[in-house]
């Protein structure tokens, strides 16, 4: 269908993930037969696409509503916290063609060389079993460092790792409390969609550990980290001290002995940075 400029919904609020967002499409933009509607969105969680399960999305004409349950497709075109992904002419077209050919799982992906990202600093963090506490509540890094952190969970409950902006413990924690009543909370790994979230991991199951990377903030300060699984953040929190660039960071204390967890598994998290994606 030809490109048609439609009305843009109001800017999402702090509770955007639990609020309904409606994109009106004028009937003059549709035609008989199959139609393709593309929505360009900006997602500050940097994961692109829409948030929520497919059955929550629908097209409505008058009182008739058609669910869009099924496979959703999107691509991240630009992430503000990493610079432009497509900075040179032809890169976006090449990526689209690569994706159409099967992406990393296709023949073209099999020929790509493995790329290892070496972190500037490596940290370890463990959870004290049955106490809702981090074994270490004081971590230190330098501004802008690529941080690799391994989190061990010997507890009987799942936990996540959420890094907030300076002074945001109460705001992020309060947003997590409100999110816990939403039907989408588990799908969001209990991470509230608020601007104060700098980085967040997925849930770490009991008896397992994960290793992930994130870029430390460029501004020095004390950044709270916490678990936002329902009811945990008030007890389960600590401080990541970010020193000015070039200062000497010291990381955290070694994790205490505990039950032997499963082997670490690579995991990804979402970082604040603003990603532009297209959903279909």
Can you give keywords for this protein?
single chain, 280 residues, mainly beta, Immunoglobulin-like, 16 strands, disordered C terminus
Structural overview:
With 280 residues, the protein is mainly beta. The chain folds into 2 domains: 103 residues, no CATH class; 151 residues, Cupredoxins -  blue copper proteins (Immunoglobulin-like, Sandwich). Helix content is 9%, strand content 28%. Strands 7-13-12-9-10-15 form a 6-stranded mixed beta sheet, covered by helices on one side. Strands 6-5-8-11-14 form a 5-stranded mixed beta sheet, with no helix packed on it. The longest helix is centred in the middle third of the chain and has 11 residues. The chain is globular. The C terminus is likely disordered.
Fold blueprint:
Elements: E1 39-43, E2 58-61, E3 64-67, E4 74-79, H1 91-100, H2 107-110, E5 121-128, E6 133-134, E7 138-142, E8 146-153, E9 162-164, H3 169-179, E10 197-200, E11 208-215, E12 221-226, E13 237-243, E14 265-266, E15 270-271, E16 275-279
Parallel strand pairs: 5-8, 7-13, 11-14
Antiparallel strand pairs: 1-16, 2-3, 4-16, 5-6, 8-11, 9-10, 9-12, 10-15, 12-13
What is the CA-based Rg, rounded? 21 Å
Order of strands across the main sheet: 7-13-12-9-10-15
State the CATH topology of the largest domain: Immunoglobulin-like
**Average of the residue pLDDT scores:** 75
How far apart the termini lie comes to: 13 Å
Instruction: Note poorly predicted spans.
Output: 14-18, 79-84, 252-261, 263-268, 270-280
């Amino acid at each position: 269908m030809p490109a048609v400029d439609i009305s843009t919904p109001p800017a999402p609020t702090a509770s955007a993930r639990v609020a309904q967002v409606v994109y009106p499409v004028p009937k003059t933009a549709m035609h008989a037969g199959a139609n393709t509607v593309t929505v360009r969105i900006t997602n500050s969680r940097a994961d692109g696409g829409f948030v929520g399960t497919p059955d929550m999305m629908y097209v409505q004409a008058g009182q008739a509503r058609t669910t869009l349950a099924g496979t959703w497709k999107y691509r991240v075109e630009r992430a503000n916290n990493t610079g432009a992904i497509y900075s040179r002419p032809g890169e976006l077209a090449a990526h689209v063609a690569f994706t159409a050919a099967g992406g990393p799982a296709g023949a073209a992906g099999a020929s790509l060389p493995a790329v290892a990202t070496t972190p500037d600093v490596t940290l370890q963090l463990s959870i004290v079993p049955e106490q809702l506490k981090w074994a270490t509540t004081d971590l230190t890094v330098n501004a802008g460092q690529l941080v690799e952190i391994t989190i061990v969970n010997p507890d009987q409950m799942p936990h996540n790792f959420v890094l907030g902006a300076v002074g945001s413990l109460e705001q992020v924690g309060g947003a997590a409390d409100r999110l816990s009543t939403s039907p989408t909370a588990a799908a969001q790994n209990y991470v509230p969609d608020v601007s104060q979230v700098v980085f967040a991991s997925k849930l770490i199951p009991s008896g397992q550990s994960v290793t992930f990377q994130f870029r430390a903030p460029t501004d020095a300060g004390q950044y709270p980290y916490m678990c936002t699984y329902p009811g945990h953040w008030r007890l389960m929190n600590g401080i990541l001290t970010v020193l000015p660039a070039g200062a000497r960071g010291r990381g955290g204390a070694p994790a205490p002995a505990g039950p032997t967890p499963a082997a670490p598994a690579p995991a990804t998290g979402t970082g604040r940075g603003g990603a532009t994606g297209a959903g279909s």
